[in-house]
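Box S1 | Example of a co-folding query
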Amino acid sequence: MSNATSAGPGRLHEFGAVAARAPAKVNVTLGVGPLRADGFHELQTVFLAVSLFDTVTVRPAERLSLVVRGEGSDGAVPADARNLVWRAAELLARHAGVRAEARLEIDKSIPAAAGLAGGSADAAAALVALDALWGTRATRGDLARLAAQLGSDVPFSLLGGVALGTGRGEQLSPVVARRRWDWVLGIAGDGLSTPTVYAELDALRSAGTLPDGEVVASTEPVIAALRSGPPSALAAALSNDLQAPALRLRPELRRALHAATEAGARAALVSGSGPTVAALADDEPAAVRLAAELAGAGVFRTVRAVHGPVPGARLVG
Ligand code: C5P
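Box S1 (continued) | Returned holo structure for cytidine-5'-monophosphate
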């Protein structure tokens, strides 16, 4: 079998397996506009891909099957046709005119329902791995279009780096940011449902508790700060319109944000729809110190020091 001996990128030496990995993301700024007729909100966001990765390994098989290992494998992540990876396989197979046949394995380090786009990372990695396994010859543009059909964050998981996201988040303009940014992610025990957080934002806006969302904050300051720093400029530019509804649904997050700044973070914000807290550090040693401090504070289930930008979904092995 030619697959068993080839050693191209992503191709493992056993049974023709192909592996790809994709990163988690933090929304460095997330402006949420009004609710659209299609049930999504208009966004202005700046995505940053960070160094916490899920890996999807795919192998030749006679039908689709799925195994989930690591984060969420206790049942939080479905290991069947509901999983975005399964849907990615069916979508790519239909696009390429091939049979959806593969054994799919997800090794998760990105926690589920954490505001880190873990499910989107898995879907993006699956598209890249299955494209190689099936030899579909899909272009990066083809994969991006399929990604957008799977979820608002999947195109960014494919692209990685730093990008301005508009539309429902799926329309991307890459941003060149050569500087490295260090963060500590404070991960909570229980996840938060993204639709529930958006619905809470709508409820707060219609009750007049929050402004109505017609004016979406400019992304210019955060892009300028990301490009060249200093950390104080990025700290001042961080924002997230989903933070207020996430705090309403999870009041203890206020203490978690406070713990991060008390422990020496430049600034801290809720990542995406939460409940992960993203704490900005000045540099890598500061992030290591901050992670150690926060691990001892007892407010998070897990604490991870990460950095970004990192590339999007890529073959590995
Ligand atoms: O696109 P995705 O499947 O990740 O979105 C999950 C849910 O998050 C949507 O069904 C919607 O309730 C909410 N959402 C939104 N506006 C966006 C993105 C997501 O309201 N731009």
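Residues 39-41, 43, 151-153, 168-169, 194-195, 198 surround cytidine-5'-monophosphate (CB under 6 Å). The chain has a mean pLDDT of 93.
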